[in-house]
UniProtKB/TrEMBL annotation:
One of its GO terms (molecular function) is RNA binding. Belongs to the methyltransferase superfamily. HEN1 family. Residues 7-246 form the Hen1 N-terminal domain. Residues 252-269 have a biased composition (Acidic residues). This is Small RNA 2'-O-methyltransferase. Residues 252-272 are annotated as: Disordered. Its EC number is 2.1.1.386. It comes from Kibdelosporangium aridum.
């Protein structure tokens, strides 16, 4: 028999009916279920499933053989497993939680949206949490989130107290939270507690951290420590995560927005100012210099630029346009708490840019920020006609990736595009050929500006064109 090592977590609610927990977790209380996960097998079962109290248990059987086969991650050897086993268990539990309760963690429950959005009384018990930092750290991490924390160090062997304390903590959390929130707290903080240093961290982890930390991490007093440990002390990554969190603190929607439309790979590891921010700043500067007051943000996505535009009183009328209803919902939520007198300057419209929309005519300026590359190339002439031919704003600002720069992104495999939805990425020459031809056909003058560091060899990461109407 293989020597497997089990880690247990239980969640209890007294919400009525308590068996709603089964709906929330998408796991039926009446049957035990098992799932293969990266580290071994995960089992979900319900020790209690009554109307007044329900407990779900997640038992993770960590299988060292699977670990060595490399399903968990490349940098993990059996030797490390044996030596560091207690420290890595927290990370594995987090990974198991996110794969077994993925939908629950996202907080979407189509059949019972109300239930998923409701904070319910929860007790979470993890009898053996590996913790570097002891009970104090556990309190520091969970208490600011509204959890009541009971953390006891577990003796190495209760029969032989003289052996001293183990690196494990018996952790009980009590609080009232949405279940999705509670799961996201655990997903981030368990690996932070175990602080395992030896597994792979890629730029993708930043996105995972920001997504799971949505709504709570930006204001957490220990956000720096959390980011450092979560990102395995990779300094460039930690800086990036913190700068994105700082950007996010006025709006919880930033991460959602990142998930929605930010490129998969674009941040240069040692640049403290994210490229997305530099891009928005450049666009705003061009619009201000053009003296524009009534502005269209075409393909506005989750509204990151709209938020910058609305901060500038000189933009008296701002219209965000997107074909995606989901993007517009995210954008709308961003302004829920904006005072009405400010919000009145903003309109959101669902419209496809490849069709003529008469209501877009007569504006001072339009922005197409990171939009054209999301259209199939044969559809571009339709967009050109509706924007430059029919809407005909005085100024049009277009940004798009410069594919030549892709070699400078350390995590982007050769030949891959920056975002899975990009239909093309152009060289500087290709972009200029397109923009020159548009300007000529529709009577605009065009000039070009770099966004981000202008590399002597491959140019800037983002290319920007400013079109001005000639007549
Ligand atoms: N401008 C935003 C979003 C860029 S992602 C930013 O830079 O952050 C591209 C956006 O273009 C997506 O939100 C997508 O829904 C939108 N889009 C793609 N094709 C479109 C079309 N034909 N009409 C309108 N919007 C479109």
């Amino acid at each position: 028999m293989r020597d497997t090592h089990a880690v247990l977590l239980t969640m209890t609610t007294t919400h009525r009916p308590a068996t709603d927990l089964g709906f929330l977790l998408h796991k039926h209380p009446e049957k035990a279920q098992s799932f293969p996960v990266a580290a071994g097998m995960a089992h979900v079962f319900y020790p209690t499933a009554r109307e007044d109290e329900c407990t779900a248990a997640l038992l993770l059987d960590i299988d060292p053989i699977e670990l060595v086969r490399g399903r968990y991650d490349r940098a993990f050897t059996l030797n490390q497993y044996v030596n560091d086993r207690p420290y890595a268990a927290g990370s594995m539990m987090a990974v198991a939680l996110s794969s077994v309760f993925k939908t629950a963690m996202n907080g979407v429950l189509k059949s019972r949206p109300q239930l998923a959005g409701t904070a319910i009384p929860l007790k979470i018990h993890i009898p053996a949490v590996p913790s570097r930092g002891g009970p104090d750290l556990v309190v520091k991490l969970f208490e600011p989130l509204g959890w009541q924390v009971e953390a006891k160090t577990v003796p190495l062997d209760p029969q032989f107290p003289q052996w001293g304390q183990s690196p494990y903590i018996d952790l009980r959390l009590t609080g009232t939270h949405r279940l999705s929130e509670a799961l996201r707290h655990l997903y981030v903080l368990l690996p932070v507690l175990d602080n395992a240093k030896h597994y792979w961290v890629t730029e993708e982890e930043i996105t995972k951290l920001l997504r799971a930390g949505e709504g709570w991490l930006a204001d957490h007093p220990s956000r720096e420590l959390i980011s450092q440990r979560y990102l395995k002390h990779r300094r460039g990554y930690v800086r990036l995560a913190l700068s994105r969190l700082a950007e996010a603190d006025e709006s919880d929607e930033e991460e959602l927005d990142n998930a929605l439309d930010a490129p998969v790979v674009e941040e240069e590891p040692d640049r403290p100012v994210p490229l997305s921010l530099q891009r928005r700043e450049s666009v705003v500067a061009v619009l201000k210099a053009a003296g524009a007051h009534r502005v269209l943000d075409l393909g506005c996505g989750g509204g990151a630029l709209l938020r910058d535009l609305i901060k500038e009183p000189s933009f008296t009328e701002i219209v965000g346009v997107d074909v995606s209803a989901r993007a517009l919902e995210v954008a709308a939520r961003r302004f829920e708490r904006t005072p009405e007198r400010v919000r009145n300057r903003l309109t959101l419209r669902q419209s496809a840019l490849t069709y003529v929309d008469k209501s877009l005519a007569g504006y001072d300026a339009a922005v197409l920020m990171e939009v054209i590359e999301h259209l199939d190339e044969p559809r571009l002439p339709a967009l050109e006609r509706s924007v430059f031919g029919e809407a005909r704003p005085g100024t049009v600002v277009v940004t798009t990736p410069n594919v030549e720069y892709n070699v400078r992104f350390p995590t982007l495999p050769v030949g891959k595009m920056r975002h899975s939805d990009h239909r093309f990425e152009w060289t500087r020459a290709q972009f200029r050929a397109w923009a020159d031809s548009v300007a000529e056909r529709y009577d605009y003058r065009v000039r070009y500006l770099p966004v981000g560091q202008d590399d002597p060899e491959v140019g800037p990461p983002t290319q920007l064109a400013v079109f001005e109407v000639s007549r």
